[in-house]
Specification:
With 253 residues, the protein is mostly helical. It has helices at 3-10, 17-23, 42-52, 58-65, 70-85, 108-122, 130-134, 137-144, 151-159, 163-171, 174-178, 183-191, 198-214, 216-223, 232-238, 244-252.
Amino acid sequence: MNILLQKMLAKADPTQVEGLSRFFKTGKGQYGEGDKFLGIKVPVTRDVVKECWRETGMEHLEECIRSEYHEVRLAALLSLVEIFRHADKKSTARPEATVSKTQPAITAAQMTREACVQFYLAHTDFINNWDLVDLSCYPLLGEWLLDKDRSLLYELARSGKAIWEQRIGMVSTMTFVRHGQLTDTFNIADILLLHPHDLIQKAVGWLLREAGKKDKSALDEFMQPRYKSMPRTMLRYAIEKFPEDERQRYLAR
């Protein structure tokens, strides 16, 4: 039995469906066109995940991530993050992650985490709205890449098959920013600097703002040759925490 799916379906609240559908732009021609909702808000989904993730296997996640319902896909992603996060704790190690006798250096935790990342990357077609991206990519993909080559994120930013993959490439760098590693954020922001979609512009501006909180001089250095060509939305997000007089100078120019 897929406990995660059953508990999510049981939390459906039809009175919330219309509002959520409108908020996530599911109308014709909008970025979330055709998506369906059960009417479950994020805190409720988090409570279900907290209760169920230990009993949720990859086969259950496969069923949930392919659901027509937005909140069930989110529950799958949040559960995946929990499995990844707790992989080094013996009591929650996944049964799929067994250590090969020929590769004793690869721990069960490492294998579990890699399996989570591979699952995530194999199912990006279903990570198809901004909240699904933002609540899953950096605590999973960003954490995984902290001590690894990060070219994957550059590939997603340059040639992601949808704006959601491009957003994954950008927002995953949040983990690096939190560790004081800003180079990839600036580099990927540069790749996406002239992107026409506002959801990418907002993501780039948001991450630049976060990088600026760590090192304002580095953000100033990035902005100076670029801000005049930035989309207005991106610029506003990036300089949101600047002193008001400085912010107005950027906007006026």
